[in-house]
Design a protein that fits this description.
single chain, 562 residues, alpha/beta, Rossmann fold, 6-stranded mixed β-sheet, elongated
Length: 562
């Protein structure tokens, strides 16, 4: 029914939509999601041919190119065949018309019915959308936001259009009203073609068959709604889902590093991406289709940064790590959970090459790692359970943090000092000469852990292995360290293997959880699934123990320094 090809919309030098291709079948509901400013409303206005900027490309509706139609013919299509529920109610509802007259207006305008029939139709729609009859004679300013939205939707449906465009239809409503209106929209949209523009992923999931993710005027990912939301394959889609609260969320909400900007050469998302490479800044990726999904990414979507294949580590005849298979995607946090002695630290040290592999292999970006050289340690760093393992008592704080730069031979001494001090600042530590010249034994436990984090971060690694990073800390300092790690992940786009015996902490920081017992991974899945519906008895026992220990949920929101 609707086919958009090579659509480009600009205001002067500012390109809002950049070569959009979309097809919507009759009877289908397609949701367009993205942050504010991504171009959603502009796309809807382009279809209605109400954009004031320069529009190029093709928008075919039932075979007709809307951009080529004379104004008079386009006016006949608006509200009759294509109707739009606008985001800003005040721009649509006439302040001098009553609600009933507002809904009657498009019917009368198109001469489809007599005034009496138009009034009957408007009354029918307003009743259907649950507006009390004593509000029919009210003016827009006398209505609540929910009543205004119901009136606007009724107005859009007045002439029973073939295509309904909904621009943030529920964003101004409270939760209860939103649920009611959403159910009504689901009913009205059953046999109707609809486009839903929204930043609300819950609205998209409840109303749409397919979903397209828009960023910087380009479609980043498109596919079946539930497939995309349950298993995002573009870094931007995953970032949107992380930032969206719902009742199954267990991880602390995270924003997206940086902010959207225009113009951007290459991929519009590359300044904020967790897996950017050189080509991303030079060339715009094409939206390619495969396996039921369309992705615009030079790397084919979210990559697997590190994986293990049947990784085994034995000490004598005892297998401490037994045929472990796990993977960590770029920009995600995998929590490895299990009691002391389950093999977690041994697995981490085997990945790092501190222990020699008995059997199996480690892969970095799908390339088998045979020797852990300088290149490997530039990309993968570890925070040890005991910070004393990484901080020499003979080195000052500044020297300890600089040491990885010294080993790698990066920059001049002044540049290395500057980099070390910057990272110490990111770790929320003082940068005074008095503090920089201290030795580990002169620091508090929280300061030692922050210094160890700074040392691990100074090489700008892509993957951070954090082995029980809060074990020796009191509850208040634990909360601050966990929040620090989340902030660093958000700012830097880090991947993280978070090792802990505390599943309550794991659920607050992780995207996925892997449960380890006797050297084996016995359960793995999305953090929300593992926490709310564990499959293994051992996982259930960890959750039960955590429930007994954690009477109150830990708060990871303090910004005070340790």
């Amino acid at each position: 029914m609707l086919e958009i090809k090579d659509l480009r919309v600009s205001y002067g030098q500012d390109i809002i939509l950049n070569r959009i291709d979309l097809e919507v079948e009759a009877g289908e509901t397609l949701a367009i999601v993205g942050e504010s400013g991504t171009g959603k409303t502009t796309l809807g206005l382009s279809i209605m041919r109400l954009v004031e900027g320069t529009v190029q490309g093709t928008i075919r509706f039932n075979g007709k190119d809307l951009l080529e139609l004379p104004d008079r013919e386009m006016q006949r299509i608006r509200w009759k065949q294509i109707a739009m529920v606008f985001q800003n109610v005040n721009n649509v509802l006439n302040p001098v018309y009553t609600v009933l007259n507002q809904v009657m207006e498009p019917i009368i305008e198109h001469g489809l019915k007599s005034r009496e029939e138009a009034q009957d139709r408007a009354t029918e729609l307003l009743n259907y959308f649950g507006l009390p009859q004593n509000r029919f004679s009210a003016y827009p300013h006398q209505l609540s936001s929910g009543e205004q939205q119901r009136a606007l939707i009724a107005m859009a449906l007045a002439n029973d259009p073939e295509l309904l465009i909904l621009d943030e239809p529920l964003s101004s409503l409270d939760a209860a009203t939103r649920a009611e209106v959403r159910e009504l929209l689901k009913k009205t949209g059953k046999d109707r073609t609809s486009l839903v523009f929204t930043h609300d992923l819950d609205t998209a999931s409840k109303l749409a068959d397919r979903i397209a993710v828009l960023y910087g005027g380009k479609i980043m990912e498109m596919g079946r709604c539930q497939d995309v939301l349950s298993r995002p394959r573009h870094p931007y889609t995953r970032a949107l889902i992380r930032a969206y609260p719902n009742m199954t969320t267990v991880k602390d909400l995270q924003g997206i590093k940086g902010r959207m900007s225009r113009p951007v050469s290459g991929c519009p998302f590359h300044p904020r991406c967790t897996q950017v490479i050189d080509v991303c800044g030079r060339e715009t990726p094409q939206l390619l289709s495969g396996q039921g999904r369309c992705i615009a990414c030079h790397r084919g979507g979210i990559i697997t940064l590190l994986s293990t294949n049947d990784l085994t580590k034995s000490f004598g005849s005892r297998k401490v790590v037994d045929s472990v298979n796990l993977y960590i995607e770029a920009g995600e946090t995998l929590a490895l959970v299990g009691q002391s002695g389950s093999g977690k630290t041994t697995l981490a040290k085997t990945i790092m090459g501190i222990y020699q592999t008995t059997q199996g292999a480690v892969y970095l970006e799908d390339v088998k790692v045979n020797i852990r050289g300088k290149d490997f340690y530039k990309k993968v760093q570890m925070i040890f359970q005991n910070p004393g393992e990484s901080l020499s008592h003979r080195l000052s704080v500044l020297e300890a943090v600089m040491e990885p730069l010294d080993v790698q031979g990066i920059g001049t001494k002044e540049e290395r000092e500057h980099k070390a001090m910057r990272v110490l600042g990111e770790a929320e530590l003082p940068q005074t000469s008095d503090f920089l010249n201290k030795y580990p034994h002169q620091l508090s436990s929280g300061e030692i852990q922050r210094a160890a984090i700074a040392r691990a971060m100074v090489l700008d690694p892509e993957l951070l292995i954090a082995d029980e990073p809060t074990t020796f800390l009191d509850a208040s300092v634990q909360a601050k360290i966990l929040k620090l790690l989340l902030n660093l992940q958000e700012q830097r786009g880090l991947s993280m293997l978070f090792i802990t015996h505390d599943i309550a902490a794991a659920r607050k920081v992780s995207d996925r959880i892997a449960v380890m017992l006797d050297g084996k991974i016995i359960e793995e899945g999305a953090a929300s699934e593992v926490v709310t519906a564990p499959k293994q008895a051992y996982t259930k026992s960890l959750l039960k123990a955590a429930s007994a220990l954690h009477v109150m949920e830990p708060e990871f929101h303090s910004s005070q320094h340790v």
